[in-house]
Design goal:
The chain has one domain. It contains one helix and three strands; from the N terminus they run E-E-E-H. Strand 2 and strand 3 form a beta hairpin. It binds zinc ion. Zinc ion binds next to loops.
């Protein structure tokens, strides 16, 4: 069950980057709660966000690129 928190107004130093999904990837999407799967034939990307709370690193969140877009890029536009 996903809890939806809308805390976008805070100024965290969180950053998002785009990374290729590795074969051994076992991260779950923070939006849809599904595994971000490696696909042999498709070059799948994921969005990885380093989330900072009160200027301290707190956690890493993973997203499907389309889920990240749907969530309106909570940590800004992903860098390459
Ligand atoms: Zn997703």
């Amino acid at each position: 069950m996903a809890t939806k928190s809308a805390t976008q107004t805070k100024k965290w130093h969180s950053r998002a980057v785009t990374r290729t999904v590795d074969a051994g990837n076992s991260a779950y999407c923070a939006v849809c709660d599904e595994l971000i799967k490696f696909r042999a034939r498709i070059r799948a990307d994921q969005i990885i966000c380093n989330v900072y709370v009160d200027n301290k690193w707190d956690r890493v969140e993973h997203y499907h690129p389309e889920c990240y877009k749907k969530a309106k890029a909570p940590y800004g536009n992903p860098e390459d």
